[in-house]
Amino acid sequence: MPSKYRLRYVFRPIVLKMAKVFARIGFTPNQVTLLALSFSSFAFVAIYLDFPVLYGVLVFVSGLLDGVDGALAKITDSVSMRGAFLDSIADRYSDLIIILGFLFWEESSNFYFLFPFPLWVVISIIGFIMVSYTRSRGESYSLDLDRGIAGRSERLFLLSVSSILYLFDNELPIYGLIITGVLANLTAIYRISIALKNLRRNYNAPSRF
Question: In this predicted structure, what is the pLDDT of residue 202?
């Protein structure tokens, strides 16, 4: 069964209220999707200009809006495959923009923990992409792989909080990215293992391992 412990459930009341406001204003779900992507772009600019706290706030807002577009689609009865496709693509662009911003943050340039910091950025990008890709591939086999501890809402929340906590320790945003990247990759591996187990059972295919 999919994980019941998702931050999106915690923030659902706020997301629904925001969706109702956007509905009254006249926004479409696709417009909210693009608005969320815009906030991710603003976050990139904020970290580039050395405003990590603002970066954290903008990432948080982008994460909320990512839930609002789906809620708005249901409220306005405008759910569509086109909208779902645009949302998925926008999320991937958003993830890349948010993570790559750290490469241009001056305070991270000389950071080293086990590996040079740029490698941690690459590790995080791989994790973010693979978590989403494994779930997408699972759906093509009728498998619900919404599992693990680092779904998109959790990843964005961790990046957001760790960046806001820059107020107390200027290295916390960097460690937040590292932890998020590690958890993302572990979640992807967990989803892959579940998929392989289910596919072997459902299709009676012999294991090659």
Answer: 67
91 is catalytic: yes
Catalytic residue among 66, 69, 87, 91: 91
Residue 138: per-residue pLDDT: 87
At residue 117, the pLDDT reads 92
Asked: is 7-203 a CATH 1.20.120.1760 domain? The reply is: yes
In angstroms, the CA 70 to CA 66 distance is 7
Residue with tokens 């904020």: 46
Map out the domains of the chain as residue ranges. 7-203
| 59 vs 52: CA distance, rounded Å | 10
φ, ψ dihedrals at 67, nearest 5°: -85, -25
β-strands 112-113, 115-116 pairing: antiparallel
Give the number of C-alpha atoms closer than 13 A to the C-alpha of residue 186, restricted to the C-beta side: 10
Residue 66 has pLDDT above 50, yes or no: yes
* Full-model pTM: 0.87
